[in-house]
Write a structure and sequence with these properties.
Keywords: Cell wall, Cell wall biogenesis/degradation, Glycosidase, Hydrolase, Membrane, Secreted, Transmembrane, Transmembrane helix. The protein is mainly beta and about 400 residues long. It has 2 helices and 36 strands. It has 2 domains: about 35 residues; about 290 residues, 3 Solenoid (Pectate Lyase C-like), CATH 2.160.20. Helix content is about 10%, strand content about 45%. The strands form 3 sheets. The chain has a 23-stranded parallel beta sheet that branches.
Length: about 400
């Protein structure tokens, strides 16, 4: 059997035998079915799972449903979407893995807000937690608001906690009014934090912008921090941390520590803070350790940073006691060594632009000041330094002089 067909000009027929015709029909049927088949969606919009962005409805369960669907999806890079416009109220919620995909996104396009009343009976837990999710990216231009003013009198913990998440990226999100610490990264590695902003009043207690704890290979880039505590705090167990091109103020600066509380062992190494600006902060770059601890803070550099009206631009405090007026005498301390300050410029409002207060039992070693010029912000006042139990040297111009820094 043959089927003859003519082209549009009515000439030159072309023929199909039965076998070819069957093959053609099967091909057309297959393409029709493929085109008509539903495409599995890679974007999991929280609104499609029942979330309501009116700022009042509790969306915790809806967000959990969206997360579960995305986490178990076979899509290569699923996205949980917080849609815009909309303000989505969440109570305490935890998003957990591991997920099926190698990368998963949580896109904050709209806003997330904590309840105005009590949002958890467990005041030691984070409000929003991401745990055991490798390849997690949280990004977007929306805001996460912790309604923190009602909680600043309490000793509660983190607003956003990310734990055991290797390859974690955080980009662009604005964090505001945390009950305490805004963002905490715990036991994660290969972390990138880029272009975020944190804003809480300068008098809000314990509102660290970013806490890095027991984490490795962390990059913090081009982010803005305004808080009532440390802009960035780097805690024990952390190494290979780079903080670059951030702004800090108000706040307590960038801190290594506190380390060694309660006689514990602490270890921090290979940290670099560079090309950052500090405005009207309590401290600029600080290392703080508790008396009686052990371990080390070493291979740390502060390069090309600027200070504008900072009380203590450069400070090592091995007598840190969490605000207490005096510390009990201890015979051990976290060892501070191989610390470099280079290319620092700015003004100080405190009595001492440079303070190196090191332990008598375990003095600071290999402290280097290279091309550091910090003048007093007070007209007619000369900047001064305070230094004891510190060993190292100076290079090039150093203002104020640090004569007590002796090898």
């Amino acid at each position: 059997m043959y089927l003859s067909c003519y082209d549009q000009l009515g000439s030159r027929p072309f023929d199909f035998d039965a076998q070819g015709m069957v093959a053609l029909l099967l091909f057309l049927l297959w393409t029709t079915l493929v085109c008509a088949a539903p495409v599995r969606q890679s974007i999991f919009n929280a609104a499609d799972f029942g979330a309501v962005g009116d700022g009042r409805a509790d969306n915790s369960k809806a967000f959990q449903r969206a997360w579960t669907a995305a986490c178990t999806s076979a899509q290569p890079s699923p996205v949980v979407l917080v849609p815009s416009p909309g303000t989505f109220l969440l109570r305490r919620v935890a998003f957990s893995g591991p997920c099926r995909a190698k990368r998963i996104h949580f896109q904050v396009a709209g806003n997330i807000v904590a309840p105005y009343g009590q949002w958890t009976s467990d005041l030691t837990s984070a409000w929003i937690t991401f745990i055991r999710i490798n390849g997690l990216t949280i990004h977007g231009s929306g805001k996460i608001d912790g309604q923190g003013s009602k909680w600043w009198a309490c000793r509660i913990n983190h607003m956003l906690a990310v734990a055991f998440c290797d390859g974690f990226h955080l980009e662009g999100v604005h964090f505001a009014n945390s009950p305490a610490k805004h963002v905490t990264v715990f036991r994660s590695q290969w972390v990138m934090i880029n272009g975020i902003s944190v804003s809480s009043p300068g008098d809000s207690p314990n509102t660290d912008g970013l806490l890095i704890q027991e984490s490795k290979h962390v990059q913090v880039i081009s982010s803005n921090f305004a808080s009532g505590d440390d802009c960035v705090a780097i805690g024990t167990g952390s190494s290979d941390v780079n903080v670059t091109s951030i702004t800090c103020g108000p706040g307590h600066g960038v801190s290594i520590g506190s380390l060694g509380i309660g006689g514990t062992r602490a270890e921090v190494e290979r940290v670099r803070v560079t090309s950052s600006q500090f405005f009207n902060t309590m401290n600029g770059v600080r290392i703080k350790t508790w008396p009686g601890g052990s371990g080390f803070a070493r291979a740390i550099s502060f390069d090309n940073n600027g200070f504008t009206s900072v009380v203590n631009p450069v400070i090592i405090d091995q007598y840190y006691c969490g605000g207490a007026r005096s510390c009990p005498n201890k015979t051990s301390a976290v060892e501070v060594s191989d610390i470099r300050y280079a290319g620092l410029r700015g003004t100080a409002t405190g009595d001492h632009a440079i303070k190196l207060e090191c332990s008598r039992e375990v003095p600071c070693r290999e402290i280097v000041l290279d091309n550091v010029v910090i003048n007093s912000a007070v007209r007619g006042k000369k900047a001064s330094s305070l230094c004891y139990n510190a060993h190292g040297w100076t290079r090039n111009t150093v203002v104020p002089e640090v004569p007590c820094l002796a090898a």
